[in-house]
Amino acid sequence: MKIKSYIGALALLLVLSLLAACGSDTNGSNNNGTGSDGKSGKETTLTFWHHYSTASPEEKTLTEQLIPQFEAANPGIKVKAVAYPWDQLHKKLQIGGSSNDLPDVARLDIIWVPEFQKQGLLVALDEKFADFDETAKGLLEGPLSTGKIGDHYYGLPLNTNTKVLFWNKAMLEGSGLSKAPETTEEFFTAIAQIKAQSGKAWGFGEPALQGWNILPWIWSNGGDVLSPAMDTAQGYLNSPATVDILTKLRAAAQAGQIAGFKPGDVPVTEGHAQGSYAMMAEGPWAFAQFESQFPDFKAGTAYFPRGSAGSIQVLGGEDLGIFSKENGEESWKFVKFLTSEAAQVSMGKVGQIPVNLKAMENSEIKNIAYFAPFLEQLKTSKARPPVAAWPQIDTVINDTMSSIFMTDRDIKSELDQAAAKIDELLKQ
Amino acid sequence: MNKKGGLAGYLFAAPGFLFFSFFLLYPLLRNFLFSFYDFKLTNLNDKTFTGFANYLHVFQDSVFWLSLRNIIIYGVISVPGQMILGFLVAYALYQNRKGTTVFRVFYFLPVITSWVVASLIFKFVFTDQGLLNYIITDTLHLTDSTISWLSDPMKALLVISFLGIWKGVGWVMVIYLAALQGVPKEMYEAASLDGCNGWQKIRYITLPAVRSTTLFIQLMLIIGAFNVFTSVYLVTNGGPMHETEVMLTWMYQKAFTEYDLGYASALSYVFAVLIAGLTFIQFRLNKRD
């Protein structure tokens, strides 16, 4: 019975999506209708999709402070902000692309921009808006480049982030360590020492095995996923440098020095504050979590352990993309507003690292002590390859790393297979 | 008269039939058609007919075989588990002695507990630093190292099967309770006079008397086992490395994470045929008995 209703649900969904597709036409004509009515009082409502967690300080600042400010400064434009979890937002946009149900503006993870650009969903900002260059000049260059594909810009950076090494002082001192490890070698010695000292704890917690988690290790050791031209993984993902670091990490995981990615493992951020993981690599949002859940915990931060190629962490962050065909100008106004100094300072105070140059120099932002290590680490951070197939490539990486870390299979041959699969994806 | 009655009959049947056609038959047929297309949720306008490619792909897919293996393991553990425990509980509680109602309620509580709540609680109990490991290592000192219940596929399947048993025993009990009321008391009295012990009474009187109920329960539980979804989805989500994937979680993954609707449709038809075949075999075997 369940299977039938399941199939039924699936098909119903399809029928509904067909209906929705028909419905969007009528919506279009409705809009025109309001347009002609609009002589009396023209009002545009912009839809803004984002993935700030519901009821988080960031979401509250957005909906209670910034949007009212924007609406007051721009009479006639209303903004309807809709929050989705990160992965749901990605799905909504993917499906929305084919059923024509898209927001005017969305906050996009920087790794999604190439994908949606390839599908032809995003507006080329520098082509459409005359004052693009002027706006872009005031923003940080690294994050700005994440919106550029080919010769055009399809996103404007909203915020940036990276991860640094967090270390639990009490746990490290308990194992005879006075400071966080600075190099990869020191790191492996330290986690072995911690394990020997406190059998039930782990030296390092890694919550997952995706590119976001594994690439910093590979990059810092001189390996990579793709060639500089981003046309092959062959010779990069399966290079000796990659094999070398993964061999060391797997040995550490098998010795019980690294955990966190297996089902049933202690959650990493909570575990770090509570003494299960002596170290972890996390973003600035960890501070917000400590503040609300473990106010007594004092987090220590340091550079991510340096390998032969340096201390290279992964660049994170979000861009604003415009999907709107009808409300382009209004959307652009909203995008410019969110990247303005005032808005960026407001969001900075609730933990979002600004990309507006003036906001970064603002004394209120400079006073936020915990931004400092991230701003330092950002100088050497690297972006995941901006290719349209990245989400699928990331799945391959996750599957490969799972089989490397949870079985005894040969690392080189697992990576060879992954490189072949990724090359397939790059060809599509 | 006859003709008129006929028309009324059709009219009475029409709402139900229309409902059935629109919400079941049409989707089923449509789904069948989709299974022959390369059809993605991200690109609804672009369908290409690929013949049996999706079906071929299903049989070459290692995760499909894994999910089939897992469903069999789940069935082999949870179906007899629920039936044996359910019968024993029913047998202990079917006479209206003092206090039996309280126990009946307790055994039935898991049945009305939400699958989501039960799954999350099981997950909480079985995580590495969960309640069970705490009891095993810190209270009972049985072992020093924590047991990774959820990252070892076989242990994880065991946990999920155990959840299935915990959740289902109450339902089996209720069905058996009803059936046991129908077994004539005189037969037990006669058996006592003939010097039968308790086990012999169960073996030669109770079990044969509730045989048709047993067959019914068995059939429902096997179909139920093939449909396990919520517990797997919430406890392991098919991981690690798809090792605990079952049919429905794999189908869900294909349809709603990878958006491969054509493939998921083919998968659903393969599973439907499997369940139908199994049910048919069961009916046959039971008839022969």
Automatic annotation (TrEMBL), chain A:
Keywords, A to Z, come to:
Signal, Transport
Q: Which domain of life is it from?
A: Bacteria
Query: Which residues constitute the signal peptide according to the record?
Result: 1-20
Q: Pfam families recorded for this chain?
A: SBP_bac_1
Q: InterPro entries this protein is in?
A: SBP
Task: Say which family it is in.
Answer: Belongs to the bacterial solute-binding protein 1 family.
The protein's name is Extracellular solute-binding protein
UniProtKB/TrEMBL annotation, chain B:
Where is it predominantly found?
A: membrane
Domain (ABC transmembrane type-1) ranges = 68-282
Under the heading SUPFAM superfamilies, the entry gives: MetI-like
The protein's matches in Pfam families, at most eight in alphabetical order, are given as: BPD_transp_1
Q: Which keywords does UniProt give here? A: Cell membrane, Membrane, Transmembrane, Transmembrane helix, Transport
- Entry-linked InterPro entries: ABC_transporter_permease, MetI-like, MetI-like_sf
UniProt keyword Metal-binding present: no
List residues traversing the bilayer. 7-29, 71-94, 106-126, 156-179, 215-235, 261-281
What protein family does this chain belong to? Belongs to the binding-protein-dependent transport system permease family.
Annotated protein name in UniProt? Sugar ABC transporter permease
